[in-house]
Amino acid sequence: MSVNKVILIGNVGKDPQVRYLDGNNNPNSGSTKVATFTLATTERYRDRNGELRENTEWHNIVMWGKNAEYAEKYIRKGTKLYIEGKLSTRVWEDRNTIKHYVTEIHVERFEFLRQPRQQ
Q1: What is the dihedral of CA 101, 107, 113, 117, to 10 degrees?
Q2: Which stretch, 24-33, 65-74, 109-118, has highest mean pLDDT?
Q3: What percent of the chain has pLDDT over 70?
Q4: E strands, the chain, in order
Q5: Following CA atoms 69, 73, 79, 81 in sequence, which dihedral angle do they give, to the nearest 10 degrees?
Q6: Cα–Cα distance between 70 and 72 in angstroms, integer?
Q7: Cβ atoms of 107 and 84 closer than 8 Å
Q8: Strand 17-20 vs strand 33-46: parallel, antiparallel, or unpaired?
Q9: What is d(CA 62, CA 18) in angstroms, rounded to the nearest whole number?
Q10: Among 1, 27, 58, 61, which is most buried by a count of CB atoms within 10 Å?
């Protein structure tokens, strides 16, 4: 048995970028909608000298389907979110055959921790 589960609470770093899998960004095409954005989580701790320090991690977030629609309508930079999802790593090669890796959190469930801004 194995488990791939991520739980994050953090602040959105930039407005979501929304696109459609058919590549032409046509909302009437019937293709799946995907939203991507970054989420910052900050750990606060005291160093050996007792000084308060912060360490911020940036996470690549991916939402699909209905979650992507909510992201497009309500999620903006600064929104505080609770996210449950799973880790996924993509690999691709560039023109120079150099491999690139990106780790993302694919959202299964999320909640707003403050009221979303209405448009």
Answers
A1: 90
A2: 65-74
A3: 87
A4: 6-12, 17-20, 33-46, 52-64, 80-93, 99-112
A5: -30
A6: 5
A7: yes
A8: antiparallel
A9: 10
A10: 61
What pLDDT digit, counting tens, does each position of 51-79 carry? 999 999 999 999 999 999 999 999 999 99
Average pLDDT over residues 12-28: 80
Spatial separation of the C-alpha atoms in residues 81 and 12, rounded to whole Å: 7
Amino acid identity, position 76: R
Taking the model in full, what pTM does it have?
A: 0.83
Which residues are CB-neighbours of 96 under 8 A, at least 6 positions away?
Answer: none
Angle at 80 between CA 111 and CA 100, to 5 degrees: 95
Contact 90, 101 (CB under 8 A): yes
Average pLDDT for residues 103-108, to the nearest whole number?
98
Average pLDDT of 32-56? Answer: 95
Tell me the Ramachandran region of residue 23: left when phi exceeds 0, alpha when psi lies from -120 to 50, beta otherwise: left
pLDDT at 13 over 60: yes
